[in-house]
Design goal:
alpha/beta, 49 helices, 61% helix, 9% strand
Length: 1496
């Protein structure tokens, strides 16, 4: 019996062999494709729905009549009820209702025709009942849809959605059997059934629409005034669904549906993303890693590799097992091509063989898809677990590094280990198994080819071997290129990091162009290697894509020579095997690249993890011991260097009693800070013994402040004790500062304390130490950044007050405090040369006497000043203003005035901007047209289309030549020559296309980098004060890498993939044309799934970027402050914070790739289903319609449909997610710029400023619009050559004044005129380059002494040596073997702070500006050196105008005039002697300074 028959008779019994299967298949065909059973099936589905709805309604009515008095009428509740009031209906609702009504009318008409029909066909009654039940069912559904509107239901009931889906497939069977009957049955036989066929054709598109509505689920009823329910507890994220998911849920990733649904409705927020499963969390993984770390006796050279294997061998084995299953089913498709071709050409063992083949194909595809995606998912999950284990371990190691190890690696490189190397290891997990899978896959492929082509497989083998050799050589080259790219990227990132850290100094000195050239120099080197790498990868891709055509040309040539008969089955089995082999051979080089990158990363991590740590036993620590000695060093010799024998401290013997106050003094570079470091255990102990009794607090000379609130910085992880906290703030003179800040101690401190002055940072550090309540306090020069009054206040209230009874070791240059200390240690050249009480060593020691003499000389000026108004001495000076104004002052430089903060929020650091929703087409346009405009992308598209056309042409030629009709006239030479010509054209096209697109990508990447660098260098200072450097660095590293490598690589592949999908669909539909009916839903579902998935995936990618920055930031911040963290023993707390941040970041990553596999499984299953249905059509359609060679052609293309379709959609999503990088870079290329650097029309004369006359006229400044004025109308004149000292309390506007001179802040009113030129008319560089400035914090850049003192390289060596001689550094530099090329490490950490200050002075001396600004330039040097510097400045800058912000009164006493700034106004401006003769703010300050030694 034919399935195309219209007969309703039961299948006949089989008498031939193979009874059971034949009967089964005949029955299946009878049920699905014969009209009568179809009608029975349709009726059954309708009846089930009607029964369900009847039972449901009956239950509702029964509840209504049995409820108490009908108070709760459940009947009025809809199937899905929402408690809302206002609603509207969309076109979707109206269309659904209209379609249901049309179907009701259609089936009613069919029913009428069936009843009126005079036909006495079999099962006529079934036909009548069928259409009647259909009409009733759709009428009921129409009523139900109206009910949905009435009760405001937003989703259709599940029963209705299931019915619509099932109904669509039944109608599809109706239509298919109608098509087959039309094609294969005589017209007379179908005479009475034309109406039914018409109904089938009309109802198919309508039921297809209802099918879509069922999948979508929403009714089209839109509700306003929505009561939003909290999706998760505020601030608390639920645990991921994966943790509690069933096996079935994990198999198909059903557990992630709630998150995707949430993401589809609205943009996902950080707290909506679930946390990782407990077994995957960082805490557990890092402790496992620690426990598996090789023991010391194992002496492992590759500990990271070994530990990872010990931790994850089970996961690796499971992934390998999944890979093996995938390989086993991968070649089923090509094996079946021969059978399909034979079946359609009439060679069949049984009439049902075709159905077996389709069933086997379907099962094989199902297993292949599941195993492939579970392989990918588990590999990526393993990658996440590796990052979970490595990042915390690297962080812990970073906190344990010795000083030399920290210098060797550098902060930037250590951060790279964490950000880049762990990521590469994680990414490599997907590629790792290719190492064994690819050879196995190729072996199986060659075995199949041997089966088809016999001995000519040798050519195929040699061809593939050639490709493989090329891949290995290419990978080696890529490895070299990649290594160099990474090395140069490290250098570039280091330079960018340094530039961001010291941007203020760069702007003051007008060095932006120098830094631009420096960074672009590193970038050019990186770009050179990047171009080599990308063109090399491009070459690999060209070879891989050309492989199937080239190798098949050679193989077919050999086969023809050897006389192998080429028929459709053989040819297309061969091409489909080559297509399958193309994938492993194409990805193998990429896998090898990933593997080699991972090996390099593992070596880098091994080197880091084996770096020298600080020895814990260099200091004997005893908690709560009863001994009298608190700190003791016996015969101590210490070195900063781990390997060198250089002794930085030698013959150290000291004993500090409990409760004593000890001061360490000495000239610059004499080893004072090193002595504290040796007590902390930060230096390598060469010999001797160090014993510390009790807990230690440490205040570093260079302030280390965290990005957080002031309160968080002071508490430093301890719980709040309000009384102790307030006391700490009081004794550190922070009360006034906090009052001035709008948010007090809740004010957020910018990165590296950027919005605090030097003194505020120092005092917050001190308050942190005081609050910790330790036994021993090590204070490194805490008075350098505060003014005289505050210094004496802190000494009195804090050092002698709050810390009384504590053991305190104080490094200081303030000689006047030394009367009041119990023990003084004097250092010189790394030795303690004198020790004892003040008076004892004053008489006996030369070094100490020299320091004291220098101090007394500077004090004489002050004494004279105080003595001038004799009458004032008899009665104490009363300056009520002064008393209040100076309590808690520093007079230090505020980089961002606290008054300016906005009232709305205490957050200085703005939340990172993130675009939400779709990446706009504008971003794609920017990327595609940046390099060559629209022409570039048009050429790429045209070349891609031509290339795909050439590929199709080769396959069509194969099909044509191997057809049965051509078998008689087959001409081998013609066949091969045309095939070879097509192959050659294809190869040429792919070469041009690939290289052109790579060039386009590289040029775009370089343009983007140039733009972002230019934009950042032109940004105003306020941008850097409110933007953490981590945010800029992530754009310069991760985002730039995406634009450099990933976008050029994958965008080209995506374009090719989509064109391949198009060609596959064209060929499949051409040969199995009923497939067209399935293509429309397939395309629609792909688009819908892509949108549904992308809504969440896009946000997860953005959140991943946003949560990565805090990990990087915390990492670099911790490495910078490692001495403070270790001193306070806070490593555990910081490690916990690191774990928290890593967990927050990795949950984004985990859910992101879970979304990827969720999409992959669904799309590939859909694609495979369509392919199997089209294969079914090829079997059902008669051979007169479809030719065997076309079956082979279609199958060879269709076998890859599911994977190509998925990869096209997935990679397009991947590209969209990576396009976020373009979006993020573009955000920072449009930063509002500061004014022009050079203005051609307003160039100052070459000798300007010649005189140095300064006129300030009614100067008003506010930091941002709508904020209060910081300077409130200052007017004054300074004559050329005058020395002016500026004093005033914190926030009074002193630093703002200097910033306005340099136009870091633009005035909002008034003007500054220097030598008759209004500075606001000049270009910024013309202005800044003519001024000299010595900033408060001495900044040195990584490089040499020469590059630091003369970055632009405009002076001769002689001039540099003279400058070094003037600033007392010539001897130090000359003593070093490299002289001017002596190394300066990052931040100048291999020079003491005093030496750094002198180097900065040397810079200014070279510049010889007529106008010099000094911001407490000598805060970090001793009185002796200070005296020398002041003398140098007096002599060298005699003719210059000097404006100096000063904390030390002697510095100001030496000035011609003093300016006292208070609350943004110039309160006093006169000679120091004049101000001291009358009651003045300045007089009060001098009096305090003179009296402070006595009062302490």
């Amino acid at each position: 019996m034919s399935f195309a028959s219209f007969s309703c008779a039961f299948p006949e019994k089989q008498t031939s062999g193979d009874k059971f299967l034949s009967t089964l298949l005949q029955w299946l065909g009878f049920i699905f494709l014969s009209p009568c059973p179809q009608r029975a099936m349709l009726t059954f589905v309708d009846v089930v729905l009607l029964l369900f709805l009847s039972v449901f309604s009956a239950t509702k009515l029964w509840k209504r009549f049995t409820s108490d008095g009908g108070s709760h009428i459940d009947l009025n509740k809809p199937l899905i009820r929402n408690n809302r009031s206002i609603f509207s209906t969309t076109i979707q609702f109206k269309l659904t209702l209209s379609v249901t009504v049309v179907l009701t009318i259609l089936y009613t008409v069919a029913c009428v025709f069936a009843f009126r029909s005079s036909s006495k066909g079999p099962w006529k009654q079934v036909d009548e009942v069928c259409w009647l039940v259909q009409a009733i069912t759709h009428a009921v559904l129409a009523v139900l849809i109206i009910h949905e509107k009435r009760f405001e239901a937003v989703t259709h009931p599940l029963s209705v959605r299931v019915y619509w889906i099932v109904n669509f497939f039944v109608i599809l069977f109706f239509t298919v059997s109608a098509v087959i009957r039309l094609v294969s049955v005589d017209v007379d036989e179908t005479k009475g059934f034309k109406v039914d066929d018409v109904v089938s054709f009309v109802s198919l598109p309508l039921s297809l629409f209802l099918f879509f509505m069922a999948v979508k689920g929403s009714t089209g009823v839109v509700l306003w005034t929505e009561e939003t329910e909290p999706l998760v507890d505020e601030g608390k994220s639920e645990v991921t669904g994966f943790a509690s998911a069933s096996l079935f849920s994990k198999a198909f990733w059903i557990w992630i549906n709630p998150l995707l649904r949430k993401g589809y409705k609205s943009a996902l927020k950080i707290d909506e993303i679930p946390t990782l499963s407990p077994e995957h969390r960082t805490e557990r993984m890092s402790s496992i890693f620690e426990s598996k770390w090789p023991k010391p006796n194992e002496r492992s050279k590759h500990p990271v590799r070994i530990t990872l294997l010990r931790c994850f061998w089970k996961e690796l084995a499971f992934i390998a097992f999944l890979g093996f299953i995938r390989l086993s089913v991968m070649f089923v498709g090509p094996l079946l091509i021969q059978s399909f071709v034979d079946f359609t050409s009439g060679k069949r063992s049984s009439p049902y063989e075709g159905y077996y083949l389709v069933l086997i194909l379907l099962v094989a595809k199902f297993v292949e898809i599941l195993s492939t995606h579970h392989f990918n998912f588990n590999a990526q999950k393993l990658g996440t677990l590796i990052r979970c284990t490595l990042v915390p371990s690297l962080y812990r190691k970073g906190l344990m590094l010795s000083f030399t190890a920290r210098q060797d690696h550098g902060v930037g490189t250590i951060v790279n280990y964490m950000a880049v190397d762990t990521q590469q290891l994680s990414d490599m997990m997907l590629q790792l198994h290719s190492v064994w899978m690819m050879p196995l896959q190729v072996s199986i492929g060659l075995l199949l080819l041997y089966n088809s082509l016999g001995a000519s497989v040798v050519t195929a083998f040699l061809g593939l071997l050639g490709v493989f050799v090329f891949a290995v050589i290419g990978t080696r080259m890529n490895n070299t290129f990649q290594y160099n790219v990474m090395k140069n990227r490290d250098s570039r990132m280091k330079a960018v990091n340094e530039m961001l850290n010291y941007m203020r100094v760069i702007k003051f000195q007008a060095w932006e162009e120098h830094f631009n050239q420096r960074i672009m120099g590193f970038r050019e080197k990186e770009y050179g290697w990047l171009s080599k790498l990308m063109f090399s990868i491009c070459g690999n891709i060209v070879v891989m894509w050309s492989t199937p055509l080239l190798v098949s040309t050679l193989t077919f040539g050999t086969a023809v020579l050897l006389g192998v008969k080429l028929d459709a089955a053989t040819v297309f089995t061969t091409t489909s095997v080559f297509k399958i082999l193309q994938e492993p051979i194409r990805t193998f080089p990429q896998s090898m690249i990933s593997l080699s990158q991972a090996m390099i990363s593992l070596e880098r991590l091994d080197r880091f993890m084996l770096s020298r740590e600080l020895s814990n036993d260099s200091v004997e620590r005893e908690e709560g011991c009863g001994a009298q000695t608190a700190v003791e060093i016996i015969d101590g010799t210490f070195s900063w260097d781990d390997d060198n024998t250089q002794q930085d401290l030698k013959n150290i013997n000291l004993e500090i009693k409990k409760g004593e106050l000890t001061a360490i003094v000495g000239t610059v570079g004499s080893g004072k800070s090193s002595l504290l470091a040796s007590i902390l255990g930060e230096m390598r102990k060469i010999s001797g013994k160090v014993r510390v009794c009790g807990s230690v607090a440490y205040v570093a000379q260079t302030s280390w402040i965290q990005n957080g609130t002031i309160e968080e910085n002071i508490l430093f992880g301890l719980p709040m004790d309000r009384q102790r906290y307030n006391e700490a703030i009081r004794v550190c003179c922070l009360e006034k500062d906090l009052e001035m800040m709008d948010y007090g101690d809740q004010t957020e401190i910018g990165e590296r304390g950027i919005n605090l002055s030097g003194g505020q940072k120092q005092r917050i550090q001190l308050a942190r130490a005081v609050y910790q309540d330790c036994d021993i306090y090590l204070l490194d020069d805490v008075f350098s950044a505060v003014d005289a009054h505050t210094g004496s206040e802190i000494f009195k209230e804090c050092v002698r007050g709050a810390l009384k009874g504590k053991t305190t070791v104080l490094v200081t240059h303030q000689v006047d405090f030394l009367h009041n200390v119990d023990l003084i240690l004097v250092t010189r050249d790394g030795m303690i040369v004198e020790s004892g009480k003040y008076n004892d060593i004053l008489d006996s020691g030369m070094d100490f006497k020299a320091l004291v003499t220098a101090h007394e000389t500077s004090m004489e000026l002050v004494e004279q000043g105080v003595v001038i108004p004799g009458e004032n001495l008899s009665k104490p000076m009363k300056a009520p203003e002064a008393a209040s104004n100076y309590e808690g002052t520093d007079g230090e430089s505020n980089s961002v005035d606290p008054l300016e903060s906005s009232k709305k929020s205490s957050k200085l650091i703005k939340e990172e901007e993130r675009e939400t929703g779709k990446v706009s087409l504008h971003v794609y346009k920017l990327y595609c047209t940046e390099a060559f405009g629209w022409w570039g992308i048009t050429i790429v598209l045209v070349l891609s289309l031509l290339w795909q056309a050439s590929m199709m042409a080769s396959d069509y030629w194969l099909a044509y030549e191997t057809s049965e009709e051509r078998a008689e006239v087959f001409n081998p030479s013609l066949f091969l020559s045309i095939y070879a010509i097509i192959t050659a054209i294809s190869v040429i096209l792919v070469v041009i296309r690939s290289y052109f697109f790579t060039l386009l990508g590289l040029k775009t990447a370089q343009l983007f980098f140039t733009q972002i660098l230019r934009s950042i260098l032109h940004a105003p200072m306020s941008f850097f004060d409110t933007t953490p450097s981590g945010r800029i660095l992530s754009r310069a590293s991760t985002d730039q890498t995406n634009v450099d490598v990933l976008l050029p690589l994958f965008t080209g592949i995506v374009i090719a993939m989509y064109i391949t999908v198009l060609s596959t669909l064209i060929i499949t539909c051409q040969n199995a044309w009923p497939t067209v009916l399935l293509i429309i839903p397939l395309v629609w579902l792909n688009i819908w799934y892509r949108g549904y998935y992308l809504a969440s995936s896009r946000e997860l990618t953005r959140l991943d970027s946003i949560t990565k920055a805090p990990v990087i930031h915390h990492f670099s911040e911790s490495i910078a402050g490692v001495m403070t963290i270790r001193a306070f023993r806070k490593q555990k707390k910081f490690c916990e914070e690191n774990l928290k941040r890593v967990n927050a970041n990795l949950r984004m990553d985990f859910h992101n790739y879970s979304c990827n596999v969720w999409l992959g499984v669904r799309l590939e299953l859909l694609g495979s289903f369509v392919f199997c249905v089209s294969a079914l059509f090829m079997i059902i359609l008669p051979s007169s319609i479809i030719k065997p060679e076309n079956v082979g052609l279609s199958l060879s293309y269709g076998l890859s449909l599911n994977s190509v379709l998925f990869f096209a959609v997935y990679l397009s999503c991947f590209i969209e997610n990576k396009m976020v990088s373009v979006e993020r870079i573009k955000q920072f290329t449009n930063i509002p710029s500061e004014p022009e650097w050079k203005i051609k029309d307003h160039l100052p004369p070459s000798i300007w400023p010649g005189q140095g006359n300064v006129d300030i006229k009614d100067l008003k400044v506010r930091y941002r619009p709508n904020t209060p004025l910081v300077l409130k109308g200052i007017s004054l004149s300074i004559s050329g050559g005058e020395k002016v000292g500026v004093v005033g309390r914190t926030g009074s506007g002193k630093s703002t004044l200097i910033q306005v001179f340099f136009r870091l802040v633009e005035p909002s009113g008034g003007k500054i005129v220097i030598d008759s030129i209004d500075i606001s008319l000049l270009g910024l560089h013309d202005l800044r380059s003519r001024f000299g400035i010595i900033p408060q914090e001495p900044v040195l850049f990584e490089g040499t002494v020469r590059s630091n003192i003369d970055p632009i390289g405009q002076y001769t060596d002689d001039q540099i040596w003279k400058s070094l001689e003037r600033c007392r550094l010539k001897e130090v530099v000359a003593a070093k073997p490299e002289k001017l090329d002596s190394l300066v490490v990052d931040n100048g950490e291999n020079w003491s702070v005093g030496q750094r200050q002198l180097l900065c002075l040397g810079r200014v001396m070279l510049k010889r500006s007529r106008l010099l600004f000094m911001d407490e330039a000598t805060a970090s040097v001793d009185s002796q050196t200070d005296g020398v510097i002041q003398k140098i400045i007096r002599e060298d800058f005699a003719a210059c105008t000097i404006i100096s912000i000063a904390h030390r009164i002697p510095t100001v006493m030496d000035c011609d005039r003093v300016l006292v700034v208070d609350a943004g106004r110039a309160k006093e401006f006169d000679k120091p002697s004049n101000l001291l003769q009358r009651q003045s703010l300045f007089g009060a300050l001098v009096q305090e300074y003179a009296n402070r030694s006595n009062g302490i």
